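hey so i finally got around to running the thing on that chain from the lab meeting. sorry it took forever, my laptop kept dying and i had to restart like 3 times. anyway pasting the input first so we r on the same page abt which one it is
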Amino acid sequence: MKCPVCNHENGDAHFCERCGSNLTQTTSSPTPVPNPESAAASEPEYTRWSSTQATSSHAPVPPNTPPGSTSKQHTAESASSNDPASTGDTHSNQWNNIVQNEKVQQAKEVSKQYLSYFLSVLARPYQSMKTVGDQHSLSGWLTMALIAILSSTYFLITFSRIGMDGLFIGGFIRPLLFTVMILIASIALMYAILKIEKITFRPKTLVAQFGTLLVPAVVSLVLANLFIIISYSIAISLLTVSYIIIFVALNAVLFHYPLNRTKAAIDSMYSVLIANVVLFFILYRMLGKIFLELISMMLSPFGRL
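ok and heres what got predicted. didnt touch it at all, straight out
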């Protein structure tokens, strides 16, 4: 029998004559050596994941790490990851910054669009009024807001120069509210007349048309605020012109529509006249006293400077 260790031929002996190996175990199959890769493949997935987690948790610590720093670092990381308040504050701050940036960008875009609209309308307001639509209603509201603010600014500057008591309330807030009410009353009167005439229209388009014709009034009020320093008489005249433009705009918008198409109880001419009288009465009741004081100031020697 050949020795499997040293390949010596031994005949029928049970032990090798050269190396002494036991020849009786050669007939049995050798014990297979397990392959690590095949063992890992046959190992269940959860067992391999558990062993990996255990190995990572017992990973060696660098030699220069002070005692207890690893546990403190792990505690700090777990605390930061499990602190919903800090995470929520961070997310809310980021969201607030995004919202503020979006609002700023929107405000810039609206300002650019309105400036372009204002300059294009100023040259030919009546022709522009015929082409505006619902998308220009915001520009119309902005124009009316500018008229209210500039009118109040004019009264505030004027009354501050003569030393009026209750300056902010009487010189700014009250004219602001009165001008807003006059503009809203103008839109309401136009709306009522068109309804009486049974004319189909869109309210947003009506606001856009009225606001388009009020663009020259904004320019007149800007000049009125500038001329306060130079001459009261010129400033008051420009202020009066701006309010006259409101009446002109009301009539221009109404006559732009095909009035008197139906047999109404009252002719369109008289309905428009009634609208003008009502608007003039509202203007006189709200700002008449202030206008009379300004006119008397204009006629005074101080006002003719």
